[in-house]
Specification:
By secondary structure, this protein is α+β, with helices and mostly antiparallel strands. It has two domains: 2-116 and 266-293, 3-Layer(aba) Sandwich (Rossmann fold), CATH 3.40.50.10330; 122-259, Sandwich (Tumour Suppressor Smad4), CATH 2.60.200.30. It has seven helices and 19 strands. Strands 1, 7, 8, 9, 11, 12, 16 and 19 form an eight-stranded antiparallel β-sheet that branches. A six-stranded antiparallel β-sheet has the order 15-14-13-10-17-18, with no helix packed on it. A hairpin with a 2-residue loop joins strand 7 (117-130) and strand 8. It is elongated, with a radius of gyration of 20 Å.
């Protein structure tokens, strides 16, 4: 956690175009910013022209409207250029999102007055080595998943810590997650929840068979290598993006990224635990499924 030093002057308000009402709410957010004396550009998260201006550091802050998926996409855009991110939840789930559709009006004046703090979220850098050739690294906010492909058969995965073997798994896959990602796929796989301010990598097997079935939290600064052995298809996926195929013997090197995702927070540092309890007890996805059955 770091204190804010200056309010943002130029803001990009970016909405997920596939989420109903997101663009309308984004327009209202932009109008309020302008009315309060700020500068706002409103558009789609997938507008290539707007994305190019963000990457050129033309703004001080991004406001993303959507759910957690939108926050991941916006985070991949702004983190490499050290641009802070504020989320307004127009989607279904919102572990990462600070504001709600019902209350954002209350916080825009505080944003423009500099009355907020920054929260630094650890990122990972993941590099695939396929057939001995190292590919360009991926920026990771949530997780790196090495898993079986379309065949419903487990794969063998070896994990090395700083070059030394630590465990082998026969499983559907192995997740290397950030603390942010500990509330995503790793949580669904039965892993622990890590506080967002720490800088540790979480290793979590998926459906292990006669293998280590517990999560391992690696010390800060560790590098983990995940090597796959299989006679059928295996893949690696970063933050739920389209998978990249792996062959037997290929591996993925995962380490802490030099960059962090800087997020705007108005709540006190204990917000994470309060929100977590609320989400676990009142999962909106469960409500939707219940309503669909009625």
């Amino acid at each position: 956690m770091i204190a804010n030093t200056a309010p943002p002057e130029k803001i990009a308000v970016m909405a997920h175009p596939s989420i109903p009402e997101a663009l309308d709410v984004a327009q209202a957010v932009g109008e309020m910013i302008q009315a309060l004396g700020g500068s706002a550009t409103v558009g789609s998260l997938y507008d290539e022209s707007l994305r190019a201006t963000v990457q050129a550091r033309a703004y001080d802050l991004i406001i993303a409207l959507g759910g957690d998926g939108t926050m991941l996409r916006a985070g991949h855009l702004c983190a490499p250029v050290d641009m802070p991110l504020l989320g307004i939840n127009i989607g279904t789930f919102g572990f990462l999102v600070e504001l709600k559709r019902e209350n954002w009006h209350e916080y825009i004046p505080r944003l423009l007055a500099g009355d907020f703090r920054y929260e630094e979220r650890m990122m990972l850098s993941a590099c695939c080595v396929r057939a001995g050739e190292k590919n360009a690294p991926f920026d990771v906010i949530n997780d790196v998943v090495v898993a079986r492909g379309q065949y419903v058969r487990p794969i063998k995965v070896e994990a090395l810590l700083n070059g030394a073997h630590i465990a082998s798994y026969v499983a559907d896959g192995l997740i290397a997650a950030t603390p942010t990602g500990s509330t995503a796929y790793a949580l669904a796989a039965g892993g622990p929840i890590l506080p967002p301010e720490i800088r540790n990598i979480l290793l979590m097997p998926v459906a292990p068979h006669l293998s280590v079935d517990r999560a391992v939290v690696l010390s800060e600064g560790s590098t983990v290598t995940i090597r796959v052995f299989t006679s059928h298809e295996a893949v690696v996926s970063v933050d739920g993006q389209p998978p990249v195929q792996l062959s037997s013997g290929d591996h993925v090197e995962v380490t802490a990224h030099e960059k962090s995702l800087r997020m705007v927070r108005f709540q006190d540092p204990n917000y994470f635990y309060r929100n977590l309890t609320a989400y676990m007890e009142h999962n909106p996805l469960i409500s939707i499924k219940t309503n669909d059955r009625s």
